[in-house]
Every structure is written in C-alpha cells, then in structure tokens.
Amino acid sequence: MIVDHTLRPESAAEAALTAARIAQRGIAACVLRLDGLRHGPGLAARARATRYAALEAACAERGIVHLLLGHHAADQAETILLRQGAGSGPDGLAGMAEIVERRNIRLLRPLLTIEPQRLRARLQAEAMAWVEDPSNADRKAARARARQTLTADPSAAAALRAQAKTSATARADSETASAEQLADRAALYPEGYAILSAGPLMPVALGALLRVIGGADFSPASAALAGLAAAPRPATLGGVRLLPAGRLGSAGALLLVRERLAAPVPATPGALWDGRFRVCGDLPTGTTIGPLGADATRLRGRSLPHAIARVLPAFRMAGTLVAVPHLQYRDAVVSAGVHVVFSPLAPVCGAGFHAGAAWLRVDQAKMNAP
C-alpha cells in the first residue's frame, strides 16, 4: 500500500510511479490518497494519524490483519532523539516497537535493525529504483532536522540505539510483570468495565486499565497515576471512575467504569461509539447509538449497577430507546442479530515490547548483500 498525502504537486505522479515499479515485480499495489491535509502546525502528527487510519481501513476491507511498515534503524534513532527533546520517559526512549496491536490489525516493523544504506544497496543490487521525498530534507520539520543531525554524527545515532536497547529491555520486563499482575488482580468485562482486587498496583498496569476503560489513546499522566496505583481508592482519573465494587467484587475491590457520557452517533454497521463499542448488524435508518444515561433508572434490576448501566451503549430512534444489547433489552424493530462489541483501540495487555526481536527480523545476510 502506497500513501499519497497530497501535500506536494508531484506526490500523485510519484505514488503512481512507485505502484508501477512494484507491479513490474508481480506484486499487487494500491495507492491510498489522503485529501484534506493542509500544511500548518502539527502537520507530522496529523499526517501520521490520517495515514494510519487509512491504512487500517484498507486492511480491514481486504481482510488483512498484519501490516508491515518500513521503519528502519535511522528512523528509530531519529524517533529516540525527538523523544529525548520532548522529555519522554523511559518507555518513550525505548523507541518504536516491532509489534503494535491495534483494534483491527497488528503493526509489524521488521526493518528496525537495518541501516538505510543497506536497504539502498539491496535495491541497487536488484535494479530497483525509488523516489526520494524532498520533504525529508526540509529543515522546517523536526524530524528532518534530527535526520541531518544524526547523519552528520553516526556515532550519536549508534549511542541512541544502544541507550534505547537498555530502555527497551526495561520496558519489556515492566510490561511482562504488568500483564502477570493484571491477570491475577483484574477482570475486564464486555460491558466496558473492570473489577480490580484490593492492594497496590504497578502504575503501568493501572494505566493500561484506565486507558481501555476510558477509551483513550494513552494512559493518564504519570505523577497522578503513580499516586493512585500505590494506594488504589475511590477517585476519578483519565475519564474513569474508581468506585467500591460492592457485590461485584471481594472486600476492598474497586469498580472501574467510564465517567463521561459520549455523544450519540449514527448506528451504521461498523460504527464506533465512545472509542470502545462497535455496532454489528443492520439497524433502521436514523437509529443512533449513545449512552443509556437516565434511561438506566427505568431498566434498574437488570443485573448491573447504575454506574455501569448509565454508560452502556443504547440504540434510539427519534429519541426513543429501542435496544440495550448488554441488558438483553430490545424493541421489535431491532433484530436479534444486532449487537455491540467492546472494541478498544488496543488491548490492556498486547504483545510484549520488542525493538529488535530476532524472530521478526528479515534475513540479515540478504539485506547486507552488496
């Protein structure tokens, strides 16, 4: 898949040329054109988010679950340098991971240990031409400045990767311990809430739970998170309420449930509501999916406490409640096949962090061929 950001007049022709070159090798290729991006503040972040969204959607349409990305060793060093400048913590300084699990796909970066000059040498040996993106040399971009700094000082790039290796090992150990602790202490339910047994918790473990329950992309700020993890108690953090679990848990256990009521959206097949729940099945035109909210009161007695019920996904037509799948409530207009799946952006515990796993790397001997 080739992404055309449409930010330069030449980009469409370059994307078409690349697709043609790949097709000559007998490899199917498609161009994903991104319209709507504009130059301005935060362009790199906006382009990245739009690019990944387009790639994920294209993979879903084609039934692809593994998306391989071309990030190489120099990209890794640049990322670490940029994160140093932004004041990232130890996890961020571990660099990009070789494996990232997202809602519908798994991102793989098999070239993270390969230097770009070796990639170019390999392409030259195969008589395969490529396009050099001029924006890579635009010093107005932070990454381009980082690239030029590291190109001028290869030893600095090597030092950054060595430092990242240490951080990556620490991050991998931390995530493994977190996964083990959550398996022992937490239970996550398809209604979008969790029960946590009493006692202190690793900040990374609590952060993962809060991220998933709150429907966020990232865990809350580390300072507040560390204090709550050391002494879990009723509180609100990261859009999540921590409440006494009562009958749902053992003594001292906490209930973690989303705090905010997200706005309704059209309930079309595949629609995502509140960053966590996906619609499955066909509903009448005009149906929306939103929070059960105040209607939870009249459905009281259907097994879940009000704190959970009020933020459950509910279907409405012209403002009238017609279905709450998690409470087994539905009107005649909603077929039995319609349901909602709890689908957070990333799992609480995904693949362990790797920044150079041997099993994922390509054949080094082939890549290093002159």
Model description:
The chain is an alpha+beta fold and 370 residues long. The protein folds into three domains: 180 residues, Rossmann fold (3-Layer(aba) Sandwich); 70 residues, no CATH class; 78 residues, no CATH class. Helix content is 35%, strand content 17%. It has a five-stranded antiparallel beta sheet with strand order 6-7-10-9-8. Strands 11-14-15-16-17 form a five-stranded antiparallel beta sheet, with no helix packed on it. Strands 3-5-4 form a three-stranded mixed beta sheet, with helices on one face. A hairpin with a 4-residue loop joins strand 16 and strand 17. Helix 3 packs across helix 5 and helix 7 crosses helix 8. The longest helix is centred in the middle third of the chain and has 32 residues. The radius of gyration is 24 Å and the shape is globular. The two termini are 27 Å apart.
**Global morphology:** globular
Largest beta sheet: what is the strand line-up? 6-7-10-9-8
Named CATH topology of the largest domain: Rossmann fold
Describe the oligomeric state of these chains in a short phrase: single chain
Extended strand count = 18
In percent terms, what proportion of residues is strand? 15-25%
Number of helices in the DSSP assignment: 10
Measured between the Cα atoms of the first and last residue, the distance is 27 Å
